[in-house]
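In the design runs reported in the main text, the only information available to the sequence generator was the tokenized backbone. The following block is the verbatim input for one such run; it is reproduced so that readers can re-run the procedure and compare outputs position by position.
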């Protein structure tokens, strides 16, 4: 599990496995899947409109978002697929934002894969990597106040409600959750 130094001395790709799922770093080849996921109405409603409208936008999002995060922080949103046939179903991972002191756990699945507990399984693997490999002391969670599914998932992951506040210069209120690991 985790990121290891390859014989050539280069850092290898972060990959995690759970009983049913595989999580790995996104690459630009995942643009078509990301284009679909980021334009799901549920993604736009609960996470936001990333302005990704075509494959070039999706490749830029991947380069400047998740792929930049892997280099800067050793973690980021990972591609989640079914282990049995590698069908991509969503994204999940730790996100470090300028507006929060600690990384938060982020996730989104295509709606046809909801209600099977996949996201909880994926998020536990990403959090375990954060704790055991990256040595994180706290993991945060943020959701819009009416995102009942996400709030339920954060509760299953062991995070507890801390406060409601807005982040940075964005006006909307968010619920902040936290789990102390140490
Ligand atoms: C958030 C998301 C990943 C959850 O996926 P999921 O497959 O539904 O998650 P799970 O099945 O593991 O758990 C969902 C929980 O919400 C509960 N739930 C569903 N509808 C609910 C409702 N109306 N009220 C209260 N709880 C509800 C489910 O019962 C389940 O809890 P349980 O396992 O204790 O029964 C998915 O909804 C998604 O991709 N949403 C869009 C993106 C998003 O909002 N991301 C989070 C941003 S903070």
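Verbatim output:
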């Amino acid at each position: 599990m985790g990121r290891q130094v390859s014989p050539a001395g280069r850092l290898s790709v972060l990959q995690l496995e759970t009983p049913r799922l595989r999580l790995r770093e996104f690459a630009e080849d995942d643009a078509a899947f990301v284009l679909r996921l980021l334009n799901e109405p549920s993604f736009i409603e609960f996470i936001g409109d990333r302005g990704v409208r075509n494959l070039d936008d999706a490749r830029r999002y991947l380069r400047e978002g998740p792929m930049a995060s892997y280099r800067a922080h050793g973690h980021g949103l990972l591609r989640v697929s079914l282990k049995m046939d590698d069908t991509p179903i969503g994204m999940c991972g730790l996100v470090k934002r300028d507006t929060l002191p600690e990384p938060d756990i982020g996730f989104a699945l295509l709606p046809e894969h909801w209600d099977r507990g996949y996201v909880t399984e994926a998020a536990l693997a990403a959090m375990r990597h954060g704790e055991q490999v990256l040595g994180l002391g706290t993991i945060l969670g943020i959701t819009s106040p009416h995102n009942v599914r996400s709030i339920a998932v954060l509760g299953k992951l062991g995070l507890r409600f801390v406060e409601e506040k807005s982040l940075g210069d964005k006006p909307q209120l968010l619920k902040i959750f936290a789990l102390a690991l140490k």
